[in-house]
Design brief:
7 helices; 47% helix
């Protein structure tokens, strides 16, 4: 598999996550300090405490949001690469290089991969998604993304990519589909006839791409057109496998 990624954009978001987390922690410490200070003006003390607390919470949320997606071994771009390792050179993975974060170009067209990194138990039944997790509210306050409605999120990203393709390749009909990939090692799925493919690990996703997910191959010339249009002059790297 080849990879075309906006590495500078990824590094910038990593820095935002790390810096915001650190600054948020420092402002929260400052809020604690203000709460114990005995200033001549009670109003000044309260204003300092509230300002430090608001900034600390806001920066901690921002740090958690970016940290969950871009920092550490659970970073989305890292986990998607791990999930798709050992795919051959027919595949090109685009990360933060297109209007949607993760897109795989394969023999049959394009696959949008929506990443979910929540731990806990996710269920789907009677058209409804549910997510159960210990300390869920506190983790969401710290920046953890809510589950939302994964199939609607996938459809939004698919439509966004289709509009982009219509501008780049107006005369070419490129199949675009979407899947959901959960990347946290402690995820448990209980899905009753979900509306789209959902995978708890890269092994299942790779097996699907090589089995049930195999579709009618694009003509070689069309696939080449799509790849060139999406690369836009950028280069690809190997996944190391």
């Amino acid at each position: 598999m080849r990879i075309s990624a906006n590495e500078k954009g990824i590094e910038r978001r990593q820095k935002i996550g790390k810096t915001s987390t650190l600054l948020g922690f420092l402002f929260l410490i400052a809020a604690v300090v203000f709460s114990f200070m005995r200033l001549s003006s009670a109003l000044l003390m309260q204003a300092g405490f509230l300002a430090a607390m608001v900034l600390g919470v806001a920066l901690s949320f921002i740090g958690g949001y970016y940290g969950e997606r871009f920092v550490g071994p659970q970073a989305h771009h890292v986990k998607v690469r791990e999930a798709l390792k050992r795919l051959d050179h027919q595949y090109v993975l685009f990360q933060y290089a297109l209007p949607v974060p993760h897109v795989l170009l394969g023999p049959e067209g394009l696959t949008v991969i929506v990443v979910k990194s929540q731990p806990g138990t996710v269920t789907y039944a009677d058209g409804k998604w549910q997510h159960r997790q210990r300390l869920k509210f506190m983790r969401q306050l710290a920046g953890q993304e809510s589950l939302g409605v994964p199939d609607e999120e996938v459809q939004l990203q698919v439509q966004k990519l289709k509009r982009f393709l219509a501008g780049r390749l107006p005369e070419v009909d490129v199949p675009v589909r979407g899947v959901v990939l959960f990347v946290h090692p402690e995820i448990q799925l209980s899905l009753d006839n979900p509306p789209l493919p959902v995978f708890p690990s890269g092994r299942e996703l790779r097996a699907w791409l090589r089995g049930p997910g195999v579709g009618k191959p694009l003509p070689a010339g069309v696939k080449r057109q799509v790849e060139e249009a999406l690369l836009g002059g950028s280069t690809t790297t190997e996944d190391g496998e």
